[in-house]
Amino acid sequence: MLVLLALxxxxxxxxxxxxxxxxxxxxxxxxxxxxxxxxxxxxxxxxVRDQPYPGDAVLxxxxxxxxxxxxxWPSQQxxxxxxxxxxxxxxxxxxMTRVVVTNQVENGSRPIWLTIATPxxxxxVLERAYDIQNVxxxxxxxx
Length: 143
Fold this sequence. Notes:
The protein is 24% helix and 29% strand.
């Protein structure tokens, strides 16, 4: 028993990915599946792509056409050492405040846009996520 307690004390204190506090989705007659957003964010490859952010209006149009969501957190810690390094942050964690997820899947992955809090203001980065489930629940939305 003492060994189990000691092993538990040695395990890293990794922040859990929380459900977004606010989600703006376009799911036609369906509801957004917040656990899908959580899973998609968790499947990110931690590799920043060198591509400029196309803007909320462009991504809103894409989401309207294929489905997806803008999801918001006050401050969600993510273990992303490569992203932290690419943004010039200390440590292996970033603080995410928003993600833009579309249902646009290509070659077994999807592009997602993460907004990361930095000392110099928010930075939006493009990464790839490998969870390709739909962010919308099949069936009718509860009214």
